[in-house]
Amino acid sequence: MVLRRILYLLFVITIMKYGKGQNSDNSSTEKPLLDNQNSDNSSTEIPLLDNQNMPLVALFDTTKLNEVLRAAIKKTVEDTMNEMIPRIKQAVIDDIGYEPGRKKERPAFTASLTSTKNLASNEVVIFDKVWLNMGGVYSQDTGVFTTPKTGLYSISTTVMSYHNSYLHCNLWKNNEKMVLAFGNDVSTGTVNVVMAVKMNDTVYVKHGTTSEEQIVGEHRSTFSGYLITE
Ligand SMILES: *[C@@H]1O[C@H](CO)[C@@H](O)[C@H](O)[C@H]1NC(C)=O
Ligand SMILES: *[C@@H]1O[C@H](CO)[C@@H](O)[C@H](O)[C@H]1NC(C)=O
Ligand SMILES: *[C@@H]1O[C@H](CO)[C@@H](O)[C@H](O)[C@H]1NC(C)=O
Q1: Is residue 132 domain-shared with residue 202, that is, in the same domain?
Q2: Minimum-distance ligand 1 atom for the alpha carbon of 26
Q3: Total domains, the chain
Q4: Which residues does ligand 3 sit against, CB inside 6 Å?
Q5: Are residues 220 and 113 both part of a single domain?
Q6: Ligand 2 centroid to 76 CA: how many Å?
Q7: Relative to the alpha carbon of 35, which ligand is closest?
Q8: Does residue 26 have its Cβ closer than 6 Å to ligand 1?
């Protein structure tokens, strides 16, 4: 198909060239598309319409032909790749269930509390042991999860209260108090929420009373979250 078009093109060019006559001088403003300076070495003459005794030959300049072919092949390969890449990508997604390199970067974190501690009035709980922190979204210095992109997030926290005491912890988004995780005696309070957050919003767990309360560590209190969808 491509080759046929090239041959046709060369054929037309040859007719144009020879149509100007054999004794062409340099006065012509038309520049032949095929420059035939090395015709002895790099071109092939094929007689055409010979049975009608017409002095017409198809002159294939193989130097230029290579160039044209190379361009045609390159374009064909590019077109094919452009068409194939989305299909290959889809096949990979179908096969392994996610798009490599993209979903891998899905923000996600899991942290837990190493040691039992007293929480002061309205103190942010810092879950100091980080098990997972994809995208570096959770700070083990501040206990704050900062959302790197706008989307729907699943957020969970479990807090365990100490023997014979209460524990009140709230999940906060920016300056908004959302839901409460409560424990009494040695028990856990758990929160699982799906929330819509904007990029750079902050999500954290904060002690919810003015009096001091204890939170049990040993990785029984946890905080985690991940992006469900953008
Ligand atoms: C035509 O141009 C070529 C090179 O451009 C030159 O070698 C040749 O002498 C010219 N012929 C005439 C008739 O001017
Ligand atoms: C054909 O071209 C090659 C390389 O360009 C050169 O070495 C060779 O001498 C040429 N032959 C003729 C007959 O012009
Ligand atoms: C989010 O925070 C980063 C770093 O501080 C900043 O470069 C970016 O502009 C912020 N984006 C939005 C939408 O607030």
Answers
A1: yes
A2: 1
A3: 2
A4: 199-200
A5: yes
A6: 31
A7: 1
A8: yes
The domain of 80 spans 1-96
| 101 assigned to some structural domain | no
Please tell me if the CB atom of residue 40 comes closer than 6 angstroms to any atom of ligand 2: yes
215 and 125 within one domain: yes
- What average pLDDT does range 53-81 have in this prediction? 73
Of residues 183 and 55, more confidence is placed in: 183
Which is higher by pLDDT, 97 or 189? 189
Q: Whose CA is nearest to atom 4 of ligand 3?
A: 200
**Reduced 3-state DSSP string for the chain:** CHHHHHHHHHHHHHHHHHHCCCCCCCCCCCCCCCCCCCHHHHEEEEECCHHHCCCCEEEEEHHHHHHHHHHHHHHHHHHHHHHHHHHHHHHHHHHHCCCCCCHHHCCEEEEECCCCEEECCCCECCCCEEEEEECCCECCCCCCEECCCCEEEEEEEEEEECCCCEEEEEEEECCEEEEEEEEECCCEEEEEEEEEECCCCEEEEEECCCCCEEECCCCCCEEEEEEEEC
What is the model's pTM? 0.53
